[in-house]
Amino acid sequence: MTSATFSSSLLGPFPVVTSTRHCDLGKERNKFCCFNEKKGQRNVICACMAPPTRNLGRDEFHGTKFTESSKYGNFSKEVKHENDSDVLIECRNVYKSFGEKHILRGVSFKIRHGEAVGIIGPSGTGKSTILKIIAGLLAPDKGEVYIRGKKRMGLIGDDEISGLRIGLVFQSAALFDSLTVRENVGFLLYENSCMSDEQISQLVTETLAAVGLKGVEERLPSELSGGMKKRVALARSIICDISKESIEPEVLLYDEPTAGLDPIASTVVEDLIRSVHTKGEDASGKQGKIASYVVVTHQHSTILRAVDRLLFLHEGKVVWQGMTEEFTTSTNPIVRQFASGNLDGPIRY
Ligand SMILES: Nc1ncnc2c1ncn2[C@@H]1O[C@H](COP(=O)(O)OP(=O)(O)OP(=O)(O)O)[C@@H](O)[C@H]1O
């Protein structure tokens, strides 16, 4: 492999994968990736994983019922479920400040097995921040993140790696500029698996085909369009070590996956997000592993096409949640203003 430079511009330096097998990405990677020296292994902290609990089938996903209550009468919705056995991720009263800027001020929500959740809200309200906290790249100042019922302590660490994989697909695609598409997509496997280079290469080709890309394996990221880069990033997030006996389920976090794309390219990505979730199997035919996903987006088409349930973040809190179809019909003044783009209303710029 050649040396790697990393192109994440917005959301931080880590592609969300975890690596334990050393491969020669060159000195440049040290500038961008975080290493853990442990048990003689060199781990690139690019992903987060969490403790195993038990397997949950999609049949166990319970329906969602909403009841409205708030100071405006319909501001936030309380979600009622029969039990929490299907909760994969829970943020409980999470706070986060950057200096004097108090961004998150008590964010609470649950992501259940089988859910396709969108996080929306005005710019700067902390949507990307909450994704990074879930991914374990940022620690909350206060409050807790539970992964399959177990509290995560601070940032993601080696002790937590098993049971649930959490992948973050960056807005910028965050590909290594100096690695080929094949090396980018297979990065985790080259570093971390027992698979041969030939096996990885074959799997990369199959995974790229699954996201609609053929014959681009030897290209560099600079030779791809924005939409292709996003698809390569998606392929990198869904590829996994098929030599393992069992593959842990994964929750994928997408940060503005369709930002900057034309309407048709957006539709392609939106449908891919859906398909890798619902397809039920990976490129090798093993059982599906994308248990749930969370999409931060500003795009109406993405809201309508790629997610089922929405969380509306405003002034540091979840101020509304509901099913996608409730979004456009909601009488909530914040939601109405946001959906219509009206300058008048409770959201101030
Ligand atoms: N590492 C950081 N250091 C300082 N401030 C930060 C950091 N990360 C985020 N912020 C600030 O926190 C606020 C929330 O940022 P975040 O990216 O989470 O917002 P967002 O809701 O995703 O915005 P947008 O919709 O515009 O992408 C912004 O004011 C941002 O400048």
Please explain how this structure is put together.
This protein is of the alpha/beta class. It has helices spanning 127-135, 181-185, 187-192, 197-210, 226-238, 263-278, 300-306, 324-327, 333-340; strands spanning 18-19, 35-38, 41-45, 48-50, 65-69, 76-80, 87-98, 101-112, 116-120, 142-147, 150-151, 164-169, 250-255, 290-296, 309-314, 317-323. Strands 4-12-13-14-9-15-16 form a seven-stranded mixed beta sheet, sandwiched between helices. Strands 8-7-10-11 form a four-stranded antiparallel beta sheet, covered by helices on one side. Strands 1-3-2 form a three-stranded antiparallel beta sheet. Helix 6 runs parallel beside helix 7 (300-306). The N and C termini lie far apart (47 Å). 45% of the residues are buried. The structure holds adenosine-5'-triphosphate. Residues 98, 101, 103, 123-129 line the site of adenosine-5'-triphosphate (ATP).
Strand order of the largest sheet: 4-12-13-14-9-15-16
Name the CATH architecture. Answer: 3-Layer(aba) Sandwich
Rg estimate, integer Å? 20 Å
What letter string, H or E per element, gives the SSE order? EEEEEEEEEHEEEHHHHEHEHEEHH
Kindly provide the name of the CATH class.
Answer: Alpha Beta
**Number of folding domains?**
1
Question: How many helices?
Answer: 9
Sequence stretches where pLDDT stays below 50 over 5 or more residues: 1-78, 280-287
The count of DSSP E runs of length 2 or more, i.e. the number of strands, is: 16
Nearest-integer average pLDDT: 72
Biggest sheet layout: 7 strands, mixed
Strand content: 25-35%
Protein name: ABC transporter domain-containing protein
Pfam family, one: ABC_tran
Keywords: ATP-binding, Nucleotide-binding, Transport
Organism: Gossypium raimondii (Peruvian cotton)
